[in-house]
Amino acid sequence: MPASVLWAVDLFGRVYTLSTAGQYWELCKDVQLEFKRVSATTQCCWGIACDNQVYVYVCASDVPIRHREEAYENQRWNPMGGFCEKLLPSDRWSWSDVSGLQHRPLDGVALPSPHWEWESDWYVDENFGGEPTEKGGWTYAIDFPATYTRDQKWNSCVRRRRWIRYRRYKSRDTWAKIPSKDDPKHLPDPFSDLSVGGWEVTDEPVGRLSVWAVSLQGKVWYREDVSHPNPEGSSWSLVDTPGEVAQISCGPHDLLWATLWEGQALVREGVSRSNPKGSSWSTVEPPTSENGIMHVSAGVSVVWAVTKDRKVWFRRGVNSHNPCGTSWIEMVGEMLMVNVGLNDQVWGIGGEDRAMYFRQGVTQSELSGKTWKAIIASRECDRSHSGSSCSLLSAGCFFGDEVRSSGESCAPSDTDAASDAERPGPDPTVPAESLDSARHPRGSSASGPGGTTEQAGEVTAGPESRPGPPSTPAELPWTNIDLKEPRKAPNHSAAGFPEPASLSSAGLLPLGLEEPYGADDHPLWAWLSGGGCAVEAHAVLKWFTLQSGLSPSVQTLSLSITPAQTAAWRKQIFQQLTERTKRELENFRHYEQAVEQSVWVKTGTLQWWCDWKPHKWVDVRVALEQFTGHDGARDSILFIYYVVHEEKKYIHVFLNEVTVLVPVLSEAKHCFALYTPERTRQRWPVRLAAATEQDMNDWLALLNLACCESRRVHGRPSPQAIWSITCKGDIFVSEPSPDLEAPEHPLSCDQMFWRQMGGHLRVVEANGRGVVWGIGYDRTAWVYTGGYGGGCFQGLASSTSNIYTQSDVKSMYIYENQRWNPVTGYTSRGLPTDRYMWSDASGLHECTKAGTKPPSLQWAWVSDWSVDFSVPGGTDQDGWQYASDFPASYHGYKTMKDFVRRRCWARKCKLVTSGPWLEVAPVALGDVSIIPESLGTHGNGHSIALWAISDKGDVLCRLGVSQLNPAGSSWLHVGTDQPFTSVSIGACYQVWAIARDGSAFYRGSVSPSQPAGDCWYHIPSPPKQKLKQVSVGQTSVYALDENGKWPPGEAWGSLSPLLGNLWYRQGVTPSYPQGSSWEHVSNNVRHVSVGPLDQVWVIASKVQGSHSLSRGTVCHRTGVQPHEPKGQGWDYGIGVSGTGPEEAVPAWGSAVSLCGLRPHRQCPQVQPPGGIGGLLGNRGPSPFTPASLGDAAISFQGGWDHISIRANATRAPRSASQETAAEQSGEQTLPGGPAKVAAAPQETLDPVCC
Predict the structure, then answer these.
(1) 1030 close to 949: Cβ distance less than 8 angstroms
(2) What confidence tens digit (pLDDT) does each residue in 50-93 have?
(3) What is the Cα Rg of the chain in Å?
(4) How many angstroms separate the CA atoms of 60 and 173, rounded?
(5) Strand ranges for 587-646 from DSSP E
(6) Which of 65, 421, 681, 759 suits 95 as a labelling partner, its CA being 20 to 30 A distant?
């Protein structure tokens, strides 16, 4: 989880931020303004300054905020002069918007506010539908408006072209005043309160914000069109209210509460994606009639309130369907205000001391939390001067009381600081003259600010539970033990809490520094906002201690030790230990080995999926026998004992033959599969299931460790390793053999051994220098730390360092289907031959909201079901897509011929695991590419080139990436005219990218000295095809198109790639890197990766085996050589598939249905395998037939989804004859490129289905 910040305003109007990863309040960079209120999100913060004007603070980012302005130039053909600007009176404006209804001359388009700047001048867009137009960018039509084409025809009477100009938001990391272009007569009154939320309103696009404000006259205003590309919004609109509003609060979703001056609360109903302002108000009475509601704060599914007597209340039963809730519950403590942030975490400001408190124990199951805990983090300015003060106090230990008395306060020691906030008052023998003795009777304790204990165990500090006066630094640390405190003037401690007598100090300011607070005073807070602060339930915060780690004197001492000294010290100790071990073992070398061979056995009970009919789960006994030979090598055998017709039998698997152990995605079983080369070819693994998740993890870890020991594979992967991702998100690596790319007799892919790494990713990209990046399902970027293991792999199977917590979020999708009825319209009652009314995308599997579960038991729901408006083809305002029948081409508008409709529902689930990955914040990514480097380029001294595509389509270049700093330092934005989806950088710095419209682009002049290049060159796509992914090697360029076919049974939105055609770019040379044309290679491809040796690996579907078709198979292109860069055939490796248990099919329909489950349902016909299936199907011993799978044959969820071969530059050495043949053929390579493979005998290509 990346660090987020908590925003707060003190009594002097200064704005501070506190990071979840830090322990100091940092003053806002722009300190010229004084503020009253702030309301924050993760990307920005809105505030009301003392001049009652609204300001917005947009946090800086490597990705700029850009907005594209468009204007269209329209012309009509004239018989006298051809096309000209003289139009007919009924025509549109000569310069207009896309609709032609608004006049839009180029000189009339101005910047909306002084906070924007132009990036460049106006220029013509020469791209039309992914294809380049003729010079000038004109598109032609018969008349206005009509369908435009890029080619001029004989009847083209009108034409138009689009002019583009980008503007960039420049006021970042500073408070920008919100401009107002409204009518002066209707301008809002000065504002008194403000709230920002709604960025996660049901089905709301990411980046959309709802900004609500309250004026001094009690009116409510809404800011229109606030989003990430437009952080200022456009205008204020008045929202009618039944009374005068005093304060307002907007939650991240659709909750909006407000308080009236009379003490009631207003709740906004009808807030939705299509109507973010809501429709009506409902009134909620205060908890008590004597004291009305003074303050309210809304979260995702909670509402907290503070009444006029400063009591804190929690609203029960609040959710999107019932925003008013059911009843009030009184909580412990007295507060001036409370604020609900992300994950429904709660903060508050104390009623008397104005200290800040955090509500601990808030979880999804216990939204009210358990206790208040004070935040006693000091300010950044305090830390800057604490070093000198602390050194004076430490010096006082040796030089007398004069030095010690120069300090002003003492901070808790590292052992006591963490518990001070929950420590009761000192012994009751302290005199009544103490400052707090009159306020708190001795023996009483408080569990919250100004309150008493409400439940057992809730005893924490608050402003009412402060002890007697603390000791001063001049006192010895033992003067308060068994002695009474002398009378003296009270000296307030930081945050109003006791300070144990200690020689360590924090928060000390030198004399002469102008601060509104004394050195011993904590900041007095006036307002806070946690809307941009994400605190996980398991997170460990540093907010509750004044010092972390060592005392200041020890910290000062530790800072004097440099990393170089530490490294030398560790090296010396390691050498001494090594020498000692040699000396102690030298005297025992002549003894014979006591035990020459040892055997270790692990037994247990599992379930096994039968290899024969009837296919079902069978209870079996398993035994893992591991033995050690004379040479110390270990080998293992797994025995599976089962009973057939009362006869005991067994099968065994040699673990040195196992190629991969794969967890199987199942909602009902804890399953995993074992593959050997033979079972890989058959697509028929050994499937086992454990009773509990822990048992499965234990067996997986044990078997993985045994397999690695048998193959002597240990430690972190090598820099040349091949990385891959399964459809489940598991990460696997394989150490490449030089024989993989051997020109003669290459190693088959099914012989490769894959071992699992901890973590969970969707995309992985590796480099030959050990730099590995990954992208999760939630678009979060991760960088490899160099460890191994994590997750279920602990102990010997995992490294002891570089393992971190990792989380991922993905969405599950189901479809609601309806058919039109002449009487009632669209209803959920379909024809007998229709699909299920609640189904997956294919309609073959019934999927209801109640019956759909997370992908596996490791996932947990984190949201409710909501309509997904981002499905391909578009939707109407309610999310419906229309078609003439099931299945057909869907569109987002209704016509007279549309008799069916559907809409997609999505729900998020979350997985928390661990692995050798660190998050790269804060930009979310959709694709990443690292330059593939061969073995001979490691010492060039240049940083590693890394390009990426953000989730919004921005092209980025990462700076500062190296072996020592794989995460890099910052992003460099590369300007584009449209959003992009894929990018790839080749070994010679050739950068190719794919735009969202399917067009390809080449980036020119990219080099180590110019990492971002200079301009984009548009490359025509294959005829009538839209590209979706590109991969560049040393000299080869491969791309995948979108042919509109999802993998069998895949629901849209599962993030599994479309099956596409594989294309090779011909004519690519160093002098002409754009190439000349595209040539088709194969189909049924999901992903392609080209390595530094131009080797080609793909993830393919419909690869045939002896038992079934695979879903995602790792395939290797064979015969790639300089004179045959496309290769000659395919060799396939691991791919999880095959028939499996019906209960293992996920409810959202991610598995393949090979035959109808109900006679009257639509059943797809099994077609003969084509493309890659045709190329590889000849390796199976028997053809695929549905009858061989039974009447309920359903494949397991699994398969591979992503592969990165770009780190593998290993190749078998050539023979002398091959070198001679290469010289005679005039083989050449690019400068610095690796040697190519000599020519191999030509093979006849099998037919490929297009």
Answers:
(1) no
(2) 988 899 999 988 889 999 999 999 999 998 889 998 899 999 99
(3) 34
(4) 5
(5) 598-609, 617-628, 634-644
(6) 65
Q: Using CA atoms, how far apart are residues 1089 and 1086, in angstroms rounded to an integer?
A: 11
Task: Provide mean pLDDT across the span 809-814.
Answer: 93
Query: Cα(228)–Cα(44) distance, rounded to whole angstroms?
Result: 9
Tokens read off for 112 = 């909306």
Record the tokens describing residue 115, joined without a space: 């906070």
Over residues 224-242, the pLDDT tens digits come to 999 888 999 989 999 999 9
CA distance 708 to 734: 11
Please choose, from the candidates 33, 58, 36, the residue with its C-alpha nearest in 3D space to the C-alpha of residue 47: 36
HSE value, Cβ hemisphere, 13 Å, CA-based, for 699: 26
Q: Are strands 880-883 and 900-915 parallel, antiparallel or unpaired?
A: antiparallel
Q: Per-residue confidence at 635, pLDDT binned at 50, 70, 90?
A: confident
Higher pLDDT, residue 501 or 1017: 1017
Query: Which among 1038, 1039, 1058, 1040 has a CA at the least distance from the CA of 1048?
Result: 1058
Residue 1090 has which token pair? 């080209």
Q: Looking at the predicted structure, is the pLDDT value of residue 532 above 50?
A: yes
CA 1114 – CA 1101 distance, rounded (Å): 9
H helices of 593-651, in order, are: none
pLDDT digits (tens, 9 = 90+) for 836-884: 999 998 888 899 999 998 888 788 998 889 888 888 888 998 899 999 9
The owner of tokens 């822990």 is 694
Phi and psi based region of residue 317 (left: phi greater than 0; alpha: psi -120 to 50; beta: remaining): left
Q: Is 1221 exposed, middle or buried (0-12, 13-18, 19+ CB in 10 A)?
A: middle
Determine contact, residues 805/995, Cβ cutoff 8 Å. Answer: no
Render 705-719 in DSSP notation, one character per residue.
HHHHHHHT--SSPPT
Of 682, 681, 618, 683, the closest CA to residue 649 belongs to 618
Helix (H) or strand (E) holding 570: helix 563-586
pLDDT band at 447 (very low <50, low <70, confident <90, very high): very low
Q: Which residues contact residue 943 at a Cβ distance below 8 angstroms, ignoring those fewer than 6 apart?
A: 959, 960, 961, 962, 1008, 1011
Residue 1055 burial by Cβ neighbours in a 10 Å radius (0-12, 13-18, 19+) = middle
Quick one: pLDDT band at residue 555, thresholds 50, 70, 90?
very low
pLDDT, the chain, mean? 77
The Cα–Cα gap between 829 and 841 comes to: 18
1022-1042: average pLDDT: 92
Q: How far apart are CA 17 and CA 625, in angstroms?
A: 58
The helix or strand, by DSSP H or E, that contains position 380, with its residue range, turns out to be helix 380-399
Residues 6 or more apart whose Cβ sits within 8 Å of residue 154: none
Q: Nearest Cα to 403, choosing from 386, 383, 381, 388? A: 388
| Measured CA distances, 511 to 14, 411, 508 (Å) | 21, 19, 10
- Tell me, what's the pLDDT at 202? 63
- Which backbone phi and psi does 1176 adopt, to 5 degrees? -105, -15
Choose the weakest-confidence range: 377-386, 530-539, 695-704, 736-745.
Answer: 377-386
Of 833, 852, 855, 854, the closest CA to residue 844 belongs to 833
Residue 740 is given by DSSP the state G
* pLDDT of the residue at 411: 38
Residue 598: is its pLDDT beyond 80? Answer: no
Cα(28)–Cα(8) distance, integer angstroms: 10
Task: Note every long-range contact of 671-680, with CB atoms under 8 Å and residues 24 or more positions apart, other chains counting.
Answer: 671/696, 671/1144, 672/696, 672/699, 672/700, 673/1136, 673/1196, 673/1198, 674/638, 674/703, 675/1134, 675/1136, 677/748, 677/750, 677/751, 680/750, 680/1133, 680/1134, 680/1135
- Cβ neighbourhood burial of 513 (10 Å; 0-12, 13-18, 19+): exposed
